Amino acid sequence: MRGVKMDKIKVMTVFGTRPEAIKMAPLVKKLEENQHIESIVCVTAQHREMLDQVLNFFNIKPDFDLNIMQERQSLSGITNRVLERLEDIIIKVRPDIILVHGDTTTTFAGSLAAFYNKVKVGHVEAGLRTFNKYFPFPEEMNRKLTGALSDLHFAPTLTSKENLLREGINEEDIFITGNTVIDAMASTVKEDYVFETQELNFIDFKNKKVIMMTAHRRENWGEPLENICSAVKEAAQRYKDVEFIYLVHLNPIVKETAYRILGDVNNVHLLPPLDTKETHNLMNKAYLIMTDSGGLQEEAPHLGKPVLVLRDVTERPEAVKAGTVKVIGTNKQDIINNISLLIENESLYCEMANAVNPYGDGKASQRIVDAILYYFGVKREKPLDFYPVKKK
User: Fold this and answer.
1) I need a labelling partner for 123 at 20 to 30 A (CA). Which of 114, 274, 287, 385 fits?
2) Is the pLDDT confidence value at 97 over 50?
3) Domains 9-179+360-376 and 193-354 in one fold
4) What CATH number does the domain located at 193-354 have?
5) Pairing between strand 210-214 and 288-291?
6) 101 an active-site residue?
């Protein structure tokens, strides 16, 4: 803990993708509310359209927009543009601390830019690990490198904290907060929700099993994504009364594969990415989630929805251990078999659906704000850590 800071603490949040924005939005709102903090928002727009959807929904108006997105952008290109453009903002604003989130290239480049300018770094959703630097790629190394550059580590779970301790991080600098995405869902999910995407209002969620899916990660490009789409096609043809809704990422590589294999399957609906509110409510109405996304592995347990993870490893083992998430890889037959099990085996489905949610209680953002106030000497006592309470 440092000495008491007399002026307001300048906290600059830096994020650039839709998943980051969803999870940072409730934190930005809490920062804005606090009398001891001057909140500054800088977006890189690593994703443009999908980022703007979230900003509009949560009514967040960035103070700075780097607008770095380019068509078919490379990882090195993203990194270079964030470093160059963010440095000018840091020199101008001189924040006391920069908050980055998770595992994107914006996250790593943002923390590196802060380090180069000797500004403190706070890492939201710190400590997630697969211990394989290429899975997920490049996210695993983005997380580790950001962790090495960070001063404050906001770990969502005890497992994440333990990962950080094994890497030599000082325990005094680690705060178990829960995941901020649970905070966000409190304002998005409504039981009587009517979709703005009209095609979804014609789907019979009450009487049909609806499987929502996403698949877009870099390590799944090529043969793995071909396998995923082929498995969904075969499952859809086998279970004609089951509806599949695939939210297709805007990346041209993903779109081409999805539409080529699934474009003519009657009970497969290919839709562009939805805004935050639409996505969360679709999850809430769905029977099952299939995804290679990290965030959905956290969101679905909160809603009591089983998740099949279309990856070989996950950096979020807590829900696997709890039983609501199962990692099934990208082998075509394995995917078909696991879809069939959850469609046909009601007891297995209920067991997964009723598992404990290990990821939060909706108070993560406040814990992070309290940790910042503690670090800068405004609060005397370190905030209590989050621990999940098991269902009785």
Assistant:
1) 274
2) yes
3) yes
4) 3.40.50.2000
5) parallel
6) no
